[in-house]
């Protein structure tokens, strides 16, 4: 996503943006699956500037989940394209659509009730230093929701891509 058409930004990159007082700032909170297994911690929030709202949680994946999948081959992000290889050090982040989680304010925990631990274990991770592109977004979305209705949208039509219940914030 290192191009002029960039519309997704980490919240901490946007000095004039902040979490609305109506919502919890979940950065630093633990995220768990439906069985209360730890997925990781919310590292940041990805904001779509055109839509002026959070669309993804940026999760730093728990070391236990990484260790379980260390010897598996998955597709991981490189600078130019997607290639199959073992995860490299640094490939420790995943994105989760904001509408795919619920927030327990009292316990300060984010719950991904509709996505199981095994799915998170197999989900392609990215290196935070390299960010990600729309192909990565689509690949992750398909891994979380393999049976969703195919809604192919032109890469440049961001509003249409994010116009799904999985991107509706709470």
List keywords for this structure.
single chain, 170 residues, eight-stranded mixed beta sheet, two-stranded antiparallel ribbon, 4 helices, 16% helix
What topology emerges from the helices and strands here?
Blueprint: E1 8-10, E2 30-33, E3 38-48, E4 53-61, H1 63-69, E5 73-77, E6 82-86, E7 91-97, E8 102-104, E9 109-112, H2 117-122, E10 126-127, H3 134-144, H4 158-161
Parallel strand pairs: 2-9
Antiparallel strand pairs: 1-3, 2-3, 3-4, 4-7, 5-6, 7-10, 8-9
Write down the overall mean pLDDT.
Answer: 80
Secondary structure category = alpha+beta
Ends distance: 26 Å
DSSP helical segment count? 4
The helix content is 10-25%
Kindly state the number of beta strands: 10
Using only C-alpha atoms, the radius of gyration works out to 15 Å
* N-to-C SSE string, H for helix and E for strand: EEEEHEEEEEHEHH
Plain-language structure description:
The protein has helices at 63-69, 117-122, 134-144, 158-161; strands spanning 8-10, 30-33, 38-48, 53-61, 73-77, 82-86, 91-97, 102-104, 109-112, 126-127. With 170 residues, it is an alpha+beta fold. Strand 5 and strand 6 form a beta hairpin.
């Amino acid at each position: 996503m290192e191009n002029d058409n960039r519309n997704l930004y980490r919240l901490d990159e946007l000095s004039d943006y902040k979490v609305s007082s109506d919502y919890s700032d979940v950065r630093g909170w633990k995220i768990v699956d439906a069985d209360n297994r730890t997925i990781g911690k919310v590292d940041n929030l990805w904001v779509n500037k055109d839509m002026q709202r959070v669309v993804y949680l940026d999760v730093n994946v728990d070391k236990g989940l990484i260790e379980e999948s260390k010897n598996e081959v998955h597709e991981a992000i490189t600078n130019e394209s997607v290639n199959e290889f073992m995860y490299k050090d640094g490939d420790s982040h995943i994105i989760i659509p904001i509408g795919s989680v619920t927030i327990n304010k009292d316990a300060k925990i984010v719950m991904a009730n509709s996505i199981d631990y095994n799915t998170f274990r197999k989900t392609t991770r990215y290196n935070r230093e390299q960010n990600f592109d729309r192909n990565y977004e689509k690949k992750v979305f398909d891994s979380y929701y393999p049976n969703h209705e195919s809604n192919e949208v032109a890469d440049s039509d961001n509003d249409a891509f994010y116009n799904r219940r999985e991107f509706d914030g709470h």
